[in-house]
């Protein structure tokens, strides 16, 4: 599925529902890689959902899924290292690519740019593969999601206002 049909599906699904279910869907869509806050926040606000509630719910969905990803990654990594030995993971080409990204931008740059460039889920995985501590990854990614959510909510509200649609 390409991005355009994805946008249409998200918008259509949100438009077909009403009330509390719309906010539940905002939470779910924000938690899904590829959709995330960059897609769901402007669509939800454009459909008339409350901007403050939309921002809070979308933030919770996106940040919650990233936290779950970090916890899952740590458990999977611990299991894998216990089963295969630690040296195996450091020799893969994926690790080398992640390391190059990490060396160039570090966790702060990856966290801030990640939501727009790769998606926050991919950015979190890259940070973890490059050796970032789980706690640092969660803190930086959560802060980045908060900033991006605020920017998207304010931008969507201002954009609708400038277009005379609010």
From TrEMBL:
Superkingdom in the source lineage: Archaea
InterPro entries: Sm_multidrug_ex
The protein, known as: Small multi-drug export protein
Organism lineage: Archaea, Methanobacteriati, Methanobacteriota, Stenosarchaea group, Halobacteria
